[in-house]
């Protein structure tokens, strides 16, 4: 049996079927070990899928042997491979580091349930990525959303409950909008399979239902992707979630929705609606720009570490959307690269936050004085990831900012304006990262206790350091994500024709 | 990976990490050996592009050799060695580690064959030089470091835009001579000029360098401005804008150095002045002028570091840095004094010092091109340099009145470092061929003609005379108090007053408006964005708040309609 052929299915099924089994692992620590093992396995699957995709294959899989338009189809191309790496990588890194932090935040008895929900989120997210039909994307979206509500509310912070309620309402609106859009498309084309839809939508005579469907799908997914001004659920949800959950979700959850949004728009609507590229650009670009500027400005003034980084995430989603809204190969490739690089940078930052949270109860900036003496390694990792977020040369962030500026310059007369916006927001990022660095390195400690080195547990610290090093590694050797992003962009633009 | 592919800069980068990892004698060994290894590696780089690496979609050239690049890299490596020798006993390990990484950036720029590599190392320099400034350890150093960082980040951003513009416009990432003709090339020029401390942004230099530690300022004095000069030579030779800018820098440096009281700030202003000479030379752009710029950069790094070293020893031993508080130190600090004087003579281009054999090349280049007013400006400036750096610095620190201070002379390592640099100053003055042989173009220039030597001696003697004639007046002012150094400004006073009055009216008008605008902006920021350190319990400002579900629903409805309507536009 050729295992490779079945990998797309295994990618989803392994975490999904392990989730209920994890609940049974009651003895201390076993649930964590099980979940981590499953995450590692998923990551390995994602890596081998990526290797296959890098060879130039697109891997199609028909569940149960039923061929594509009738059965459930899965497919993995360059874009999905990149996304799979991000999702499984984030989940694996977070789980590997998670134990000390989770032990502190979640009581032992509930841990198996917690890890089981984690795996459900994982399987939902990878399901969205590999699913080749619109309805299954919806199903996986619900799986991942429902499970992530549990994760966010699972911590000791009671403020997570109202936050998660708001997230639930908005997530449901988003999913419903998406479903309405898919329903309209199904009505017009009679198919749910994306590839089939792309083929059949050319025959549709009546434009209006398709247009409205595009509207519903775009808005619904934008809501889930936290595109400004539909981002309001993000700061509270990220801030009050258990720290490790924030690492996981901030690195990949909203990006998966953005992935579907970009894919749907380019594969299905661009080819049908006349001048849709203009419409998409005119709709998405102002939102992206506003998101970048406003969210960065809010982050500059924010006083709570996690909330600050959450605001910055909204701005970064803006970058990804901006690249996509240029409707060019290089723009899309910048988007996809930034998807990957931002996951690295923000994942690393939130990991460092989890380390800090191990010693500091209150994560407001003015409470973090003296952290650099207490936790030198954590702070160093934080600075490296922060530099990457800003886009300093030699870090991963530089690559995507460079591509984005390049794409903006090539986008025509408005290019210089976009470049100015990207640069201004980079300087804003300098300001908000600087405020954190200032708190960590220069402020006096609030309590006058003795400042001895009391680092976070080794397990947590090692992974944080590793992610920081990866930020530098992918800044110097960006080939793999870049190659994936380039072929993804080429694929999407081809779909748009 | 083959050995030739690697930039010599990597040795220093590794050394910088090692300095953090090892302790004691091993650390000393790293500090002293790594620069020598770098120096060796620099001379192993043959001419031409050594290697190309694919990065993004470009073929970058991390290592490209040429006589000019090697010359700058050589003096940087010597600088790291002597600076390390000078600093290793008193500087903190993280200051040295940052200084080494900073130097690695400078050497990386020297060998960068393309704009992208250059930019990578450029930013490396910016980051680690900021850390060196912070290592001053005082609140003033911290504040100056922030201002320094902002200026360099801005410069980096401008440079990046320029580079991307050129890359997109021409499709080439090669470092090749260009002229500032369009937006992108102007951006590159401005980005480089910010590092060269060109007019209107030069205050970062005199602001930050004096606040760093005595050892830190030695390193800072060498790299940033001189890599900018190298970049100008490589990218903008013959760009005539630079002549005017350079002359402005020359004059600016002199006037402010004369007005200054802080020892290291005098030296910092004189960096601006000396870099001005080089910028003028790049602007002239002939082979002679570019030779002059390169040679002068080499000589300047050595004597300026020497001056900063002797100033550093004084500050280290006495803890004082104002001219007024010092004086008479020659009694107990003979080595520091002699080395300081040699540095001072070199910077004033006294015959038989390196300053004479290099700076006169630039003047000669101006003459050759019939740029009389440039020549006059440079000559007048030479007299001014002697006044502020050549006499003022050693006189007030080591002679004048007896301040009563009896500090010990420099520790052995600092003495050795200073003696090495002082010898180089003399050596290049007596045997200029040593340096001329390394220059990018063949040198057909004889510095020691009788006419020239006599001319310079007269110039120096008369400006020296002027200094001592004015001295009684200066002495009186010093007895008044530390901060009322207003008499110092007598010479420039009337001129400044006119300018000040004109500026004063404008700034008064602006400040009223500024207050109003500031208040308005602040109120808006608080209302929409929030204040730093908002407590969790307080209601956040409009954009930072978590809006109600209803508000979001309205947005959703609005966006959906907008989406559909946009299609019909």
From TrEMBL, chain A:
Keywords, in A-Z order: Cell membrane, Membrane, Transmembrane, Transmembrane helix
Topological relation to the membrane, as annotated: Multi-pass membrane protein
Pfam families: Proton_antipo_M (PF00361)
Subcellular location: Cell membrane; Membrane
The NADH:quinone oxidoreductase/Mrp antiporter transmembrane domain, residue ranges: 131-425
Keyword Hydrolase among UniProt keywords: no
Entry keyword annotation includes Transmembrane: yes
Record InterPro entries: CPA3_Na-H_Antiporter_D, NADH_UbQ_OxRdtase, ND/Mrp_TM
Protein name: Monovalent cation/H+ antiporter subunit D family protein
Native species: Paraglaciecola algarum
Automatic annotation (TrEMBL), chain B:
Species this chain originates from: Paraglaciecola algarum
UniProt-annotated location(s): Cell membrane; Membrane
Chain ranges of the NADH:quinone oxidoreductase/Mrp antiporter transmembrane domain: 112-377
Keywords: Cell membrane, Membrane, Oxidoreductase, Transmembrane, Transmembrane helix
PANTHER family in UniProt: HYDROGENASE-4 COMPONENT F (PTHR42682), NADH-UBIQUINONE_PLASTOQUINONE (PTHR42682:SF4)
Record-given protein name: Na(+)/H(+) antiporter subunit D
Recorded topology in the membrane: Multi-pass membrane protein
Keyword check for Chloroplast: no
Superkingdom classification of source: Bacteria
Lineage: Bacteria, Pseudomonadati, Pseudomonadota, Gammaproteobacteria, Alteromonadales
InterPro entries documented for this protein: ComplexI-like_HydComp (IPR052175), ND/Mrp_TM (IPR001750)
Main location: membrane
Family matches, as Pfam families: Proton_antipo_M
TM region positions: 6-22, 29-46, 71-88, 100-121, 127-145, 157-177, 183-205, 217-236, 242-259, 266-285, 297-316, 328-352, 372-391, 412-431, 453-471, 547-568
């Amino acid at each position: 049996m050729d295992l490779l052929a079945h990998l797309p299915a295994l990618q989803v099924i392994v975490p999904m079927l392990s989730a209920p089994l994890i609940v049974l692992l009651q003895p201390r620590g076993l649930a964590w070990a099980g979940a981590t093992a499953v995450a590692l396995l998923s990551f390995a699957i994602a890596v081998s899928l990526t290797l296959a995709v890098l060879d130039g294959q697109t891997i199609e899989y028909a569940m149960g042997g039923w061929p594509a338009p009738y059965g459930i189809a899965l497919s993995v191309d360059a874009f999905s491979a990149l996304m799979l790496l991000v999702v499984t990588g984030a989940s694996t890194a977070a789980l590997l580091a998670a134990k000390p932090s989770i032990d502190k935040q979640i009581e032992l008895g509930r841990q198996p349930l917690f890890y089981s929900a984690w795996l459900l989120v994982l399987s939902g997210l990878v399901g969205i990525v590999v699913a080749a039909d619109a309805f299954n994307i919806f199903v996986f979206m619900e799986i991942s959303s429902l499970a992530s509500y549990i994760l966010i509310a699972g911590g000791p912070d009671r403020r997570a409950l109202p936050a998660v309620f708001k997230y639930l309402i908005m997530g449901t609106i988003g999913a419903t909008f998406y479903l309405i859009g898919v329903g309209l498309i199904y009505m017009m084309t009679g198919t749910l399979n994306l590839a089939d839809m792309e083929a059949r939508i050319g025959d549709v005579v009546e434009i209006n239902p398709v247009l409205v469907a595009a509207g519903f799908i775009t808005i619904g997914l934008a809501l889930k992707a936290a595109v400004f001004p539909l981002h309001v659920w993000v700061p509270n949800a990220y801030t009050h979630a258990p720290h490790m959950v924030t690492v996981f979700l901030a690195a990949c959850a909203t990006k998966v929705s953005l992935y579907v949004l970009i894919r749907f728009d380019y594969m299905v609507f661009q080819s049908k609606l006349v001048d849709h590229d203009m419409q998409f650009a005119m709709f998405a670009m102002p939102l992206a720009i506003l998101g970048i500027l406003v969210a960065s400005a809010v982050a500059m003034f924010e006083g709570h570490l996690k909330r600050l980084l959450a605001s910055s995430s909204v701005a970064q989603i803006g970058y990804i959307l901006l690249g996509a809204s240029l409707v060019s190969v290089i723009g899309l490739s910048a988007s996809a690269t930034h998807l990957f690089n931002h996951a690295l940078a923000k994942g690393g930052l939130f990991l460092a936050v989890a380390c800090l949270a191990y010693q500091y109860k209150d994560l407001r900036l003015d409470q973090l004085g003296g952290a650099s003496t207490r936790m030198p390694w954590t702070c160093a990792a934080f600075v490296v990831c922060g530099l990457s977020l800003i886009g300093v040369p030699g870090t991963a962030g530089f690559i995507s900012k460079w591509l984005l500026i390049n794409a903006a310059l090539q986008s025509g007369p408005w290019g210089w304006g976009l470049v100015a916006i990207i640069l201004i927001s980079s300087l804003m990022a300098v300001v908000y990262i600087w405020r954190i660095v200032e708190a960590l390195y220069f402020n006096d400690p609030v309590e006058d206790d003795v400042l001895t080195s009391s680092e976070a547990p080794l397990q947590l610290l090692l992974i944080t350091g590793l992610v920081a090093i990866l930020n530098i590694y992918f800044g110097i050797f960006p080939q793999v994500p870049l190659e994936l992003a380039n072929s993804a962009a080429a694929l999407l633009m081809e779909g748009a024709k | 990976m083959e050995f030739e592919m690697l930039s010599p800069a990597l040795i220093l980068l590794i050394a910088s990490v090692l300095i953090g990892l090892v302790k004691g004698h091993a650390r000393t060994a790293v500090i002293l050996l790594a620069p020598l290894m770098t120096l060796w590696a620099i001379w192993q780089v043959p001419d031409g592009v050594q290697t190309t690496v694919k990065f993004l979609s470009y073929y970058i050239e991390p290592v490209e050799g040429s006589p000019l690049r090697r010359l700058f890299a050589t003096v940087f490596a010597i600088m790291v060695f002597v600076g390390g020798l000078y600093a290793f006993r008193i500087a903190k390990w993280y200051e040295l580690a940052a200084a080494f990484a900073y130097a690695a950036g400078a050497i990386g720029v020297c060998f960068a064959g393309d704009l992208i590599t250059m930019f990578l190392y450029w930013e490396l320099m910016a980051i680690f030089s900021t850390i060196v400034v912070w290592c001053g350890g005082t609140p003033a150093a911290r504040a100056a470091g922030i201002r320094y960082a902002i200026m360099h980040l801005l410069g980096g951003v401008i440079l990046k835009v320029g580079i991307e513009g050129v890359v997109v416009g021409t499709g080439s990432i090669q470092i090749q001579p260009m002229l500032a003709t369009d937006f992108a090339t102007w951006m590159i020029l401005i980005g480089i000029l910010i590092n060269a401390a060109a007019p209107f942004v030069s205050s970062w230099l005199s602001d930050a360098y004096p606040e760093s530690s005595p050892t830190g300022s030695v390193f800072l004095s060498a790299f940033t401005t001189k890599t900018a000069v190298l970049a100008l030579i490589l990218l903008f030779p013959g760009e005539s804008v630079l002549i005017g800018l350079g002359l402005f820098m020359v004059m600016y440096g002199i006037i402010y150095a004369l007005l200054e009281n802080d020892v290291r700030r005098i030296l910092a202003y004189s960096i601006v002045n000396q870099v001005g000479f080089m910028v003028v030379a790049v602007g002239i752009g002939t082979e002679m002028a570019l030779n002059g710029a390169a040679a002068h950069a080499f000589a300047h790094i050595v004597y300026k570091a020497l001056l900063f070293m002797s100033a550093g020893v004084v500050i280290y031993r006495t803890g004082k840095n104002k001219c007024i508080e010092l004086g008479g130190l020659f009694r107990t600090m003979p080595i520091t004094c002699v080395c300081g004087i040699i540095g001072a003579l070199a910077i004033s281009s006294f015959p038989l010092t390196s300053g004479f054999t290099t700076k006169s090349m630039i003047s000669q280049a101006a003459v050759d091109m019939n740029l009389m007013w440039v020549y006059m400006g440079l000559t007048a400036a030479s007299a001014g340099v002697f006044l502020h750096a050549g006499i003022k610095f050693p006189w007030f620190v080591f002679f004048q009145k007896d301040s009563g201070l009896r500090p010990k002379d420099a520790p052995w390592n600092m003495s050795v470092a200073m003696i090495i640099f002082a010898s180089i100053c003399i050596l290049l003055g007596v045997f200029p061929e040593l340096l001329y042989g390394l220059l990018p173009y063949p040198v057909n220039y004889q510095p020691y003609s009788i006419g020239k030597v006599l001319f310079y001696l007269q110039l120096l003697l008369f400006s020296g005379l002027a200094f001592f004639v004015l001295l009684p007046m200066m002495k009186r002012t010093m007895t008044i108090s530390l901060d009322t150094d207003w008499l110092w400004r007598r010479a420039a006073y009337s001129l400044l007053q006119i300018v000040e009055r004109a500026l004063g009216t404008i700034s008064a008008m602006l400040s009223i408006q500024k207050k109003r605008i500031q208040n308005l902006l602040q109120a808006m920021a608080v209302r929409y964005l929030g204040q730093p350190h908002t407590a969790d319990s307080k209601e956040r400002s409009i954009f930072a708040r978590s809006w109600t579900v209803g508000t979001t629903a309205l947005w959703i409805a609005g966006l959906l309609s907008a989406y559909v309507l946009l299609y019909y536009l």
